[in-house]
Amino acid sequence: MADRFDTGMSVRRQVLGDAHVDRAEAGKTAFDRPFQTMITEGAWGTLWADDTISRRDRSLLTLALLAATGNFEEIPMHIRASRNTGASPDEVMQAFLHVAVYAGVPKANHAIKLAKDTYKELGVEL
């Protein structure tokens, strides 16, 4: 498991950036350590480390799934990560348009608002 954890930390840093991961690690406690280990090994060390599909595609899938399921809290983080995965703002919008048709306009609308706010914060002109 150490290899999967180490791979997960490497991929997590590549996608989310060192500053984000350092903040998350600094906030880790004995209480949430098992959860942090599980997502590092599972999400980052297994899923995101797999090269069957590109990180760009995973990024777009992740954003669409977060919006479609109403898990909006992580959308800004994954918008920031799209700078590292290569998913463009136009591609992100297309993912959210899919959400509008297949999961609901209100979910897409909120995801788009979060994306706009995050891109503005990053200095990305839309």
Describe this structure in words.
The protein is an all-alpha fold and 126 residues long. It has two domains: 1-50, no CATH class; 54-125, AhpD-like (Up-down Bundle), CATH 1.20.1290.10. 76% of the residues lie in helices and 0% in strands. α5 crosses α7 and α6 (89-102) runs antiparallel to α7 (105-122). The protein starts with a helix and ends with a helix.
Characteristics of this structure?
4CMD/NDH-1_regulator, mainly alpha, AhpD-like, 4-carboxymuconolactone decarboxylase, 126 residues, peroxiredoxin activity, lyase, EC 4.1.1.44
Short description:
It is built from seven helices and no strands. The chain has helices at 2-16, 18-26, 33-47, 55-68, 75-85, 89-102, 105-122.
Number of beta strands:
0
For the record, the count of structural domains works out to 2
**SSE string, helix = H, strand = E?**
HHHHHHH
Percentage of residues in helical conformation: over 70%
Give the oligomeric state. single chain
The CATH class of the largest domain, by name, is Mainly Alpha
Q: What percentage of the residues does DSSP assign to strands (E)?
A: under 5%
| Distinct helical segment count | 7
CATH superfamily of the largest domain: AhpD-like
Mean pLDDT: 97
In terms of structural class, how would the helical and strand content be classed? mainly alpha
User: Based on the structure given, which CATH architecture of the largest domain is correct?
Assistant: Up-down Bundle
Largest sheet: none
Amino- and carboxy-terminal Cα gap: 42 Å
Provide the CATH topology of the largest domain: AhpD-like
